[in-house]
Amino acid sequence: MEWVRTIVCYVCAFQLFLHVLPGESYRKYVEFFGSLILLLLVVQPLAKLSGTVENFEQEVQLLGIRGELEELERNLDGMAGLRNEAIEEAFQKELIRQIEAVAGAYGLTEVTAEAAFGREEDGTPVLEEVRIRARGEQEGAEKAAAEISQVYQIPDGQVLVQLF
Length: 164
Fold this sequence. Notes:
single chain, 164 residues, alpha+beta, 5 helices
């Protein structure tokens, strides 16, 4: 019953917001995103019953991390003329932070990651090997290693997860 009340309250608040919205130029965009939110509210209880909520949340988190990686790579490409040790060090630290976040998304805790970097022909740093030390289950470790290998294009067997 709480689910129905949440949907009704959302629809009322959203309609009120649409009436208060100044001008009509953004109305179709606001309605589109409002409809997406309503769809998520309607599907949420069904997803909880089927157990897909956790997988969906992991996918959303990993999608965000992939987007961050792409943005980092674009930023690094845009700074080709400014490339120096400080920028590369910041880039490497951010990649390690992202790798730790991916491992955390698969239920691993107390995650610490180390990475070995090489260079492409154009001088861009590239991940060659990742070592992760974490607490958690073997299944989560295997999934995290596979995801990291795929996202960061690290050769198979070069992502090592040690559980303690």
